[in-house]
Amino acid sequence: MHALTLPPAHIFDEMLLPSGVVRPHYQRFANWLHEQTPQELKLKHQEADLLFRKVGITFAVYGDESGSERLIPFDTVPRIIPGAEWKALEEGLAQRVTAINAFLHDIYHHQHILKAGLIPEEQVFQNAQYQPAMQGIDLPNNVYSHITGVDLIRHNDGNYYVLEDNLRVPSGVSYMIEDRRMMMRLFPELFARHMVSPVEHYPSLLLRTLRQSTHVDDPTVVVLTPGHYNSAYFEHAFLAQQMGVELVEGRDLFVKNDRVYMRTTAGHKQVDVIYRRVDDIFLDPLAFRADSMLGVPGLLSVYRNGNVVLANAIGTGVADDKSIYPYVPDMIRFYLNEEPKLNNVQTWMCRKPAELDYVVNNLADLVVKEVHGAGGYGMLIGPMASKQEIEDFKARILANPEGYIAQPTLSLSTCPTFVEAGIAPRHIDLRPFVLSGREIRMVAGGLTRVALKEGSLVVNSSQGGGTKDTWVLEDESC
């Protein structure tokens, strides 16, 4: 039998009630765990590590002198979500992404929400991710974010909250799929005991979404990667292979007669949809950064004329900026005339003098983030920072208030996790992937990231986090 460590009393644990009693949807897993010895679990954990190394599932860490690539740690204890709970999440995610796409269409067209005074114009027009070149361009189905990764956390009140929206090339879906494959290989008996919703069909859903994003009858789809030095290159290659489409770099494509073509061994072939994993400013050296070697000269002109689809659209990043995030509930009310089904985390915008004053006087209790930051960098976790770190960060905020937002230090839920000392609670989040086309699609689940350091709230892989398989149970009685 493997003993479970109880989480702190003020933390919501996904598997255990505060009394130590197992939650109903984890009962079958707990029964199985009771039958395992610590030695058996350790061997399985080591086998998973070895298999991931063989497959080559790695990511690059920029500036890491110890080596160019790392393995993202995989945890063998799944995060389990009851079917009814997932259904509510799914409805909230679809609502949120629908509103964000409506917002993006609006700001590049009539700007009704700005004229209504719900969002300050400068928050949009002065945003580094806002692309004036997109003004007035009509996109198929009015979809800007075809692939959205929404980061969710569960607070100690038991409710889910949206931490942030990832619309610029959200990554991690390859780990969601490979984590499931690993669990099915290591623990087939667990899947005989549980009705777990599949995730393996995500690539086919993605391909269908991309193919339906254009009016072309039989479109050619490609995945555009910056190259094998990119931190998420494994995922780019993985998704291209799983979808059965070409993985290309900018040098493989060229523009001719207002169309985009791909160089192939059989000659030139027109490309209709580009799932691009390259940031806006590198896409076209004629329109953005002249020194970019990653993009395709003339691509923007073809795109503006409607002769190629880019997923996600250029200029989409303005909606995943942390300074725009606080307004998403207003977007839902404005465009859909509905109340948000998923709540935001309370957020203070340092650009507002009163909120700035509150933030700088309460830094020890808050999490402060750069509005353009990502990957767990450029942030302050007040309760874990030294007095000197707080003073240094205060100076940075006061020098550039517009560049920061602050949020309360949330008690991210925990989930039992295999660590050196055995199985112990570790903090987690959840990133479901929402596909938007003629309709909204998503697989049941997402990528669960886990902070492997005891007490840590930072789940990002670049900061030492790992991943778990996410099970959504189909039999809602469990």
UniProtKB/TrEMBL annotation:
Matches recorded under SUPFAM superfamilies: Glutathione synthetase ATP-binding domain-like
Q: Where is the Circularly permuted ATP-grasp type domain?
A: 78-451
InterPro entries named in the record:
ATP-dep_Glu-Cys_Ligase-2, CP_ATPgrasp_2, UCP005522
Superkingdom, taxonomy of origin:
Bacteria
Pfam families associated with the record: CP_ATPgrasp_2 (PF14403)
The name under which this protein is listed is: Circularly permuted type 2 ATP-grasp protein
Organism, by scientific name, is Leeia speluncae
Q: Show the taxonomic lineage.
A: Bacteria, Pseudomonadati, Pseudomonadota, Betaproteobacteria, Neisseriales
